[in-house]
Amino acid sequence: MPDAEIHRYYIAKAHAAGIRDATPGSIAFTQRWGSALNLNPHLHIICIDSVYSRYGDFAKFRNLDRLTDDEVASLVESIATTSNPTAKHLKGLRALAEERIFKRFLLVCDVETERRTEDGIEILPWETFLKRLWAGDCV
Fold first, then answer.
1. pTM of this prediction?
2. Total domain count, the chain
């Protein structure tokens, strides 16, 4: 997920600044239509440009340096080119699976063929995911 990649980036940036218990924040939602009411599924993600850390029983806002243009370009490239998902890409889904709230877990990325991990996470090409989503098979 794009927001997971961005979160990893902010956590690493916070660690480099000496903040060990960093928690990034974001809001993400899917928009299905373009401005001409054409099918155009895409994500909107708003990320805070900093992190929170624990301060006793409270969360403390911790400022980080602004992202440079080069950092943004690097993040976009890493998000757009995930064609070989690794354990780090599955970490969040695996943690969520441990809570046993949902029955099905999907990782959608730029792979050529679909597959299933040993713990049941489905890895789907984005085109396959969209076809199944609109057919009602992914909900």
1. 0.54
2. 2
